[in-house]
């Protein structure tokens, strides 16, 4: 349920909205809540807002973003799992609340594989390793060398425990044999403030927030985690180039609804997102954020979720990601 | 972007018809709730917040801000004419303002309050325009340790400035922190204090609680003493201060503005401290301290300037650090986040139109308020005489709609009602709810920064003392506690706050 409809209906909607339970045929007959799992301004939230805007334009009904930030998206995931599966609440977010949290968080109040209905993976991107200008290492090999010489001294920030930033950092730690202290933040904006101010030395996160500051030289990019260099960051080498051949990790952003959401609504949303990603302006917009469109089917997304969970589970079992 | 370019951008934002209209609505509503005893800006803003979600972010913020500083003007009207503070920070204004009114100088007191407020508002907005960009630049030097210390200072200030015993205030703050913990832990995802109720998994909504305690709680408290409330309204004669008045009020206005500008920025202090401090300062500097409390125009002009200056500058930590110093500012942050705007150092570069538009609108709003309050004072005086039995059912309905529309949850209405009763109970036992509300917002933030600081320092708590900024902040907080424990200063505080009751 959402906030803006009160205004939309002149403040008297309070009485009407309690009824709920609309059938799929006339959907959407009232505003739809799109939950964003992180605070405003981060990559995940930007994608949530893009999706909400495109669905609003497509269906002629308000899709209203609501930020439910905290616990690496687990608060948002819990809220979605408790929502009615009537198509009036969906979640658009990075993969943590949709997949990895299942194995990374011991106290997760829902199971993303059974409590959610996958809609589509909207887009994917590389993760970017950045360093503050005050950091003791300004290149990727230096970071590894420094961490080896100073075990337990390196702090690396991520936008939430179990987010892809966290997982990638753990994977790098596993493959290079260094110990990293993972510091969770409540999304990208506070992490970026701290790395700009030099309060934390390193961060591993989706790139879009960091791009303008890299251009200004206020932070340093050490590596991208994708298999190839990124068109937006041609001078930044990949992790694979710098001593970890074959290393590849991408992060993805997807849309899900509560379990039992009508198939017609799932398909309507998936088709709209897919059609939008094929437009030139969508591709330009996503590229400027360092993103590549995906728009796969609900079944394919189920596979993406499974693969993500399997890969993180391996890290948890190897003792590299501590479930909290 | 320089300050000058910023102000030009702000002018073009604030003078669009929509924004100007909502600025007017904001200050008009603000004056009205300021005038009406028992309906303050916190309750009004929390009731109206859900209705602003459909507006653009700049328009919503401009209107909400207008309600806040508008109430500072309105509060003085009731204080002077009826000896009733329409708003907590106008308490000091009753001391000399109402005495002036009884001597037939009501109009001159009103003019002193409005002119003082306008001057202070102008200086306050200028101060934001100049200092906020500087502070936003400095904000990056604030790491988790510094934020934590600032929050501690805010919590301690709010406890020290509350009437009643320090122990009660501490208890209220503690209760606020505990209430703030309800829900899912941000770091680990563990459910805390939820008793297995899914409604509590997302935590207690701050707006629901504020509406309950300040909106419904005030209604209950007012109904309790409804018969006593029928006070007389002093007649208003000339509104023009004499030459002598001008001479006596210029100094206090300038000094009050200075006090308010500085104290407004301090988290937790807010507008109440600035009006008390300005009054104490004027009394100390005056050659006729015995005239205070018997209708000294200095005692009206100084505190009124101070509270309005603080009402402008308390936006600075909210906008540049994302740190709410008062309950009102916490509501504004809530409103901005719904709009997809994250207050913090980035707001200047990412939302320049919003930031500068707000500043320019504040000055426009202050100008509107000057006209709204002086020539139209008769209208407001009539508003005071609206019987409460017409008013309170309306407030009840609006609190219920406001609470419901946050999450469209009936549970929230029950929660709001429960906190309304609790708010009434707090008033009955003389426990101020302000520290509770502030702790409810700042508590979870303090926890987040504390845990992050300790993670970054590998569990070494000495970082709070080795960072000069953090150490300085903590020392100020410690001095505040010590000062309140020393009997002499304690007497000053109790005297100052006694007058508030």
TrEMBL record, chain A:
InterPro entries (alphabetical): BUG (IPR005064), Bug_dom1 (IPR042100)
SUPFAM superfamilies referenced in this protein's UniProt entry, alphabetically: Periplasmic binding protein-like II
Keywords: Receptor
Tagged with keyword Heme: no
Pfam families hit by this protein: TctC (PF03401)
Family: Belongs to the UPF0065 (bug) family.
The protein's name in its UniProt record: Tripartite-type tricarboxylate transporter receptor subunit TctC
TrEMBL record, chain B:
Transmembrane segments: 45-69, 109-130, 150-182, 203-223, 259-281, 321-341, 353-374, 386-404, 433-450, 462-485
Keyword flag Transmembrane: yes
Domain DUF112 residue range list: 21-438
Taxon lineage: Bacteria, Pseudomonadati, Pseudomonadota, Alphaproteobacteria, Hyphomicrobiales
InterPro entries found in the cross-reference section: DUF112_TM
Name the UniProt record assigns to this protein: TctA family transporter
Keywords linked to the UniProt accession: Membrane, Transmembrane, Transmembrane helix
Residues spanning the signal sequence: none
């Amino acid at each position: 349920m959402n906030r803006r409809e009160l205004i939309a209906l002149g403040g008297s909607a309070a009485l009407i909205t309690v009824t709920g339970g609309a059938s799929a045929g006339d959907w959407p007959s009232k505003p739809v809540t799109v939950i964003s799992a992180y605070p405003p301004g981060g990559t995940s939230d930007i994608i949530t807002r893009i999706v909400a805007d495109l669905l609003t334009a497509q269906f002629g009904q308000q899709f209203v973003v609501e930020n439910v930030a905290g616990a690496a998206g687990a608060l948002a995931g819990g809220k979605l799992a408790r929502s009615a599966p009537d198509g009036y609440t969906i979640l658009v977010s990075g993969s943590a609340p949709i997949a990895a949290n299942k194995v990374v968080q011991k106290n997760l109040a829902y199971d993303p594989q059974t409590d959610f209905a996958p809609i589509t993976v909207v887009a994917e991107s590389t993760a970017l390793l950045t360093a503050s200008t005050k950091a003791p290492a300004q290149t990727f090999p230096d970071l590894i060398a420094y961490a080896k010489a100073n075990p337990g001294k390196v702090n690396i920030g991520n936008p939430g425990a179990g987010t892809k930033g966290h997982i990638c950092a753990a994977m790098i730690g596993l493959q290079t044999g260094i110990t990293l202290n993972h510091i969770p933040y409540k999304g990208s904006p506070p992490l970026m403030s701290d790395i700009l101010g030099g309060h934390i030395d390193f961060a591993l996160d989706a790139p879009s927030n960091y791009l303008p500051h890299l251009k200004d030289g206020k932070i340093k990019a050490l590596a991208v985690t994708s298999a190839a260099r990124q068109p937006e960051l041609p001078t930044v080498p990949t992790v694979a180039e710098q001593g970890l051949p074959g290393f590849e990790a991408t992060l993805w952003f997807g849309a899900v609804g509560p379990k039992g959401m009508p198939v017609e609504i799932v398909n309507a949303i998936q088709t709209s997102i897919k059609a939008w990603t094929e437009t030139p302006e969508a591709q330009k917009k996503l590229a400027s954020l360092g993103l590549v469109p995906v728009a796969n089917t609900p079944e394919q997304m189920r596979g993406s979720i499974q693969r993500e969970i399997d890969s993180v589970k391996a890290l948890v079992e190897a003792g590299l990601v501590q479930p909290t | 972007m320089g300050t000058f370019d910023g102000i030009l951008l702000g002018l073009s934002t604030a003078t669009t018809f929509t924004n100007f209209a909502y600025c007017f609505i904001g200050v008009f509503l603000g004056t009205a709730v300021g005038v009406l005893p028992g309906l303050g800006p916190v309750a009004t803003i929390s009731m109206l917040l859900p209705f602003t979600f459909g507006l653009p972010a700049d328009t919503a913020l401009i209107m909400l801000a207008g309600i806040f500083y508008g109430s500072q003007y309105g509060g003085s009207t009731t204080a002077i004419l009826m000896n009733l503070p329409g708003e907590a920070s106008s308490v000091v204004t009753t001391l000399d303002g109402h005495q002036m009114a009884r001597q037939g100088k009501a109009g001159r007191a009103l003019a002193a309050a409005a002119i003082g407020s306008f001057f202070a508002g102008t200086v306050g907005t200028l101060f934001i325009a100049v200092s906020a960009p500087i502070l936003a630049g400095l904000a990056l030097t604030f790491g988790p340790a510094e934020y934590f210390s600032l929050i501690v200072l805010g919590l301690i200030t709010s406890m020290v400035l509350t009437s009643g015993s320090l122990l009660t205030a501490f208890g209220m703050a503690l209760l606020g922190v505990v209430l703030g913990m309800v829900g899912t832990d941000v770091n680990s995802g563990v459910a805390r204090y939820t008793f297995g109720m899914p409604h509590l998994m997302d935590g207690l909504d701050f707006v629901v609680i504020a509406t309950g305690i300040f909106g419904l709680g005030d209604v209950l408290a007012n109904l309790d003493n409804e018969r006593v409330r029928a006070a007389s309204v002093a007649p208003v004669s000339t509104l023009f201060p004499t030459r002598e008045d001008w001479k006596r009020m210029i100094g206090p206005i300038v000094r009050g503005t200075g006090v308010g500008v500085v104290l407004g920025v301090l988290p937790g202090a807010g507008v109440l401290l600035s009006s008390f401090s300005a009054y104490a300062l004027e009394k100390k500097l005056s050659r006729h301290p015995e005239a205070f409390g018997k209708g000294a125009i200095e005692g009206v002009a100084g505190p009124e300037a101070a509270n309005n200056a603080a009402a402008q500058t308390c936006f600075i930590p909210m906008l540049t650090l994302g740190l709410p110093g008062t309950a009102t500012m916490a509501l504004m942050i809530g409103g901005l986040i719904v709009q997809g705007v994250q207050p913090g150092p980035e707001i200047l570069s990412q939302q320049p139109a919003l930031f500068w538009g707000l500043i320019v609108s504040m000055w426009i709003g202050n100008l509107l308020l000057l006209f709204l309050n002086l020539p139209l004072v008769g209208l407001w005086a009539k508003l005071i005489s609206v019987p409460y039995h017409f008013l309170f059912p309306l407030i009840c309905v609006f609190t219920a709609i406001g609470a419901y529309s946050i999450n469209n949850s009936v549970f929230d209405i029950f929660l709001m009602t429960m906190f309304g009763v609790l708010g009434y109970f707090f008033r009955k036992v003389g426990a101020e709810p302000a520290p509770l509300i502030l702790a409810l917002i700042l508590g979870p933030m303090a926890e987040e920064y504390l845990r992050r600081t300790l993670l970054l320092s590998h569990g070494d708590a000495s970082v709070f003392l080795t960072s000069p900024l953090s150490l300085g902040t903590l020392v100020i907080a410690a001095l505040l506690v010590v000062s309140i424990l020393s009997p002499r200063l304690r007497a000053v505080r109790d005297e100052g706050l006694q007058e508030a009751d």
